[in-house]
Design a protein that fits this description.
Order of helices and strands: HHHEHHEEHEEEHHHEEEH
CATH topology of the largest domain: Beta-Lactamase
Structural class: alpha+beta
Strand content: 15-25%
Largest sheet: 6 strands, antiparallel
Mean pLDDT: 83
CATH superfamily of the largest domain: GAF domain
Helix content: 40-55%
Number of domains: 2
Radius of gyration: 26 Å
Low-confidence stretches: 2-9, 16-28, 297-305
Length: 305
């Protein structure tokens, strides 16, 4: 019985191909959908995307189906879903498929992140060694900030909260707050309305406090964090801009509170702002050297009162 159903589906698919009518074959999609679990469907869709390469940027339906070893009906259903999500494009003239614009956009994000990580490594390693503090690179990732690089200084006391690959709320910590402060207005509203959380009693959670923090970070060119992530920990953060001037990441230094006193804080701010400016320059930003407004004596943190 299964063979008969598969044979009927294959014949129906062949008829649809003859009529150039891949998109309207809903019966085939509904019949096959019941046989696939969501996880297996995702794996198969990824297998289709993996068929494309620099040597084979365009593929026919037959090449894709035979390459992943699935029936024509399953391949057709998966290609339809990928086309709907702009992961795959179909050229009616050549009757061949190629990767879609959404893949290009995702690839651009990965490429930029990898370039950022590669360029930041020697800079932050030297910065951690020079200051004796832990240095980070943080980027936006959905509704949280993601740590992509971390370098620890050779000190006995280290801040262990934010490891590479871990995420943190945008309203907590110097680097995440720098990112939040430079979001467009609509995106900033979305995060503040639904994605803030209190990690300590010093975390900024109210809209009024975060509005003030946003204004001060933009005016000063840096953020200072005191115990808003974990007790007895402090940090300074500065923006990293790409060639368009957009803030794409933030760099920061973090350590124990005693090392961020009124005498040493200006030096740490100057160092992190300079690091952010240099990394921005390496990414193509050419609007001059970033300068930080002097730290006020006794200031607890930008926006923290």
């Amino acid at each position: 019985m299964t063979d008969q159903i598969d044979g009927a589906l294959d014949r129906a698919l062949d008829d649809a191909r003859d009529r150039d009518d891949f998109d309207d074959d809903l019966d085939l999609q509904q019949a096959q959908a019941a046989a696939d679990s969501p996880v297996r469907s995702v794996s198969r869709a990824v297998a289709i995307l993996d068929q494309f390469s620099l040597e084979r940027p365009e593929l026919s339906f037959t090449e894709i189906s035979s390459g992943i070893g699935l029936t024509k009906s399953t391949t057709h259903r998966l290609l339809g879903a990928l086309r709907h999500e702009e992961m795959i494009e179909f050229d009616p003239a050549s009757r061949r498929y190629r990767l879609g614009l959404r893949v290009f956009r995702l690839g651009s994000v990965v490429s930029k992140t990898m370039e950022l990580a590669t360029r930041s490594d020697p800079l932050l390693e030297a910065l951690a060694e020079k200051t004796g503090e832990t240095a980070y690179v943080v980027v936006p990732d959905g509704d949280e900030a993601l740590c992509i690089r971390r370098f620890d200084a050779r000190t006995e006391v280290r801040i262990l909260f934010l490891e590479v690959g871990k995420r943190q709320a945008f309203n907590c910590g110097a680097a995440p707050r720098v990112l939040l402060a430079h979001f467009p207005a609509q995106r900033w509203d979305e995060v503040v309305a639904g994605h803030v959380r209190a990690m300590t009693e010093h975390s900024l959670v109210s809209r009024a406090a975060l509005e003030r923090d946003r204004r001060e970070i933009r005016e000063r060119g840096y953020a200072v964090s005191r115990e808003d992530v974990t007790p007895h920990a402090c940090a300074v953060g500065a923006p990293v801009r790409d060639h368009t001037g957009h803030v794409v990441a933030a760099v920061s230094l973090s350590g124990i509170e005693q090392r961020y006193n009124r005498d040493r804080l200006p030096q740490l701010v100057e160092a992190i702002v300079a690091a952010g400016a240099e990394l921005s320059r390496q990414l193509g930003h050419q609007n001059g050297v970033e300068t930080a407004r002097p730290v006020r004596a006794g200031s607890r943190a930008a926006g923290q009162r």
